[in-house]
Write a structure and sequence with these properties.
Layout (H helix, E strand, L loop, with lengths): L14 H6 L16 E5 L4 E4 L17 E2 L3 E4 L5 H11 L5 E2 L4 E6 L2 E3 L4 E3 L6 E2 L3 H6 L13 E7 L7 E4 L10 E6 L3 E7 L36 H5 L8 E6 L4 E4 L1 H5 L1 E5 L8 E7 L12 H11 L2 E2 L1 H4 L10
Parallel strand pairs: 1-14, 9-18
Antiparallel strand pairs: 1-2, 2-3, 4-15, 5-6, 6-10, 7-8, 10-17, 11-16, 12-15, 12-17, 13-14, 13-16
């Protein structure tokens, strides 16, 4: 199905195609019971009853009975205000591509085909130099020890376009356990709903072949010692949770999603939760088959080698006067 001029296709829509291209009746309608909402607090690592995201700021004076929600790590103020300003300035000097649901994107990574499970380096030659300090800073977080970035993607959410992203789980054939996002320009919310579909979707069944990097106590096991159970078994919720979890995407924070929240919950960003321009930088790592000694380590090693390179964006786009502001 061909995308509409705005970039949307199928049930994915934005305010532009809903108004000008007859897509109003195509958009996905999410029926979320706000009475089932819980707001995750990054300071006590529990989810408390409520819907409005500012509820986490009540810490430690929360109200109601909390629930445990594993698989989320948030570090506020991962970058400073001046670092954010310079980062966004450089990001906006790189060409944006249109994406679905009112978003724009800049993608740096190998070429992947999730349906055929094929990956090639393509024209991937690493990442823009201005973002290197972010990857370097990952080392300051125990949870990201030895995290090797394979894909870096900048995403823009614009409220004037009705930007959002539908509920989904990031592909599990190629992208590994830890999903990392740095949030810039404004606060927003990641809305989590438990996934009850077939494991064929999102290539989720592939996770049965992996062992967890992040252990239940939050420690890192890079040797995959815990081989008596599969990833999906270890990360499965202890009991069925009838709740919607609201994760605060705090401006200038970093969030790491792993384990249960990574594999058993779909995540989305609702249109109503984009109130001003938001830009995030998302990161992915390889699954075990593409790491050293893995079944596909040869192509994995080639891509990993390229992923360690950084280049100057001004030189790369020097002929694009409409992009580079000198």
């Amino acid at each position: 199905m061909k995308p509409r001029p705005c970039g949307c296709k199928g049930c994915r829509t934005c305010l532009i195609c809903e108004k000008f291209y007859g897509a109003e009746n195509l958009k996905l309608s999410l029926k979320l019971d706000k009475n089932k909402g819980y707001v995750y607090c990054p300071f006590c690592n529990k989810a408390w009853p409520g819907w409005e995201i500012d509820a986490y700021k009540q810490h430690p004076n929360h109200s109601g009975k909390p629930i445990n929600y594993p698989g989320i790590y948030i570090k506020p103020d991962f970058i400073t205000a001046s670092e954010e300003e310079e980062l966004i300035k450089c990001i906006d000097q790189v060409p944006w591509d249109i994406s679905q649901s009112g978003r724009r994107k800049q993608n740096f990574g190998p070429k992947t085909n999730f349906k055929k499970k094929k990956i090639v380096p393509g024209n991937f030659e690493g990442f823009p130099e201005f973002s290197k300090f972010l990857q370097d800073r990952f080392k300051s977080i125990d949870l990201l020890r030895d995290y090797q970035v394979i894909e870096q993607c900048s995403l823009e959410y614009d409220p004037s376009k009705g930007a959002s992203i539908d509920p989904h789980i990031d592909d599990c054939w190629i992208w590994g356990e830890r999903i990392v996002t740095i949030n810039c320009l404004s606060d927003s919310v990641l809305t989590m709903t438990i996934f009850k579909g077939e494991t064929k979707k999102y290539n989720l069944y592939c996770a049965d072949e992996y062992y967890p990097v992040v252990q239940q106590d939050g420690s890192i096991d890079l040797e995959f010692i815990n081989k008596d159970k599969t990833m999906l078994e270890i990360c499965k919720p202890n009991e069925e949770i009838d709740a919607i979890i609201r994760i605060p995407l705090i401006r200038r924070s970093i969030i790491v999603m792993y384990g249960e929240s990574r594999y058993h919950w779909e995540h989305c960003i609702l249109r109503e939760d984009i109130t001003s321009r938001r830009v995030c930088i998302a990161y992915r790592e390889f699954t075990p088959p593409y790491l050293t000694n893995g079944l596909h380590h040869e192509i994995g090693n080639e891509i990993t080698t390229r992923a360690k390179k950084f280049w100057d964006h001004r030189s790369k786009y020097k002929n694009k006067d409409e992009v580079i502001d000198t």
